[in-house]
Write a structure and sequence with these properties.
This protein is an alpha+beta fold. The protein is built from five helices and five strands. The radius of gyration is 16 Å and the shape is globular.
Length: 161
Amino acid sequence: MSTDSENNASMARVGRVIPELKSPLVLYPLKRENWLDLNATINNEDGTSTPAFIPYKKDPGYPAPTVKEDYVWGAGPHSWGYYHLLTKNAYEVLHYRLLKEATPAGQWCCILSSNPAVAREDYDVVKVILYNRSKASIPDDFQAQADAVDDARGSAGRGYY
């Protein structure tokens, strides 16, 4: 069992490959009451507000997406765009992106294998955290673990019957 500081250290090392993981909003343990609604806005300390989702098309006519602080670019229920890290959809995108970094045989792809700062153990820790968050009913890592187990039981039960 890893400690919170070990989990966060793994997150930081994998953040060298997936920069969104460097945000303080992803620190373990995540403990909030509700996921941010995609139609909501976030009130910033400086008096401005930012949306939970920023549309950004995926097509050749648009420049390549850049990393936005506290956002993840990818596909989700509102199509392609930037999903804030306080939305569940951001973790679905991050989990999928992390899975793409490994081949189906579970071996490192060129990106992770060429980066000696990212150990397999770090990858495995972060993969579980992101998976749990992608299944979580609320943004709470302890509830996320329970939700992921419930989801796995449901999948196993459907496969059995």
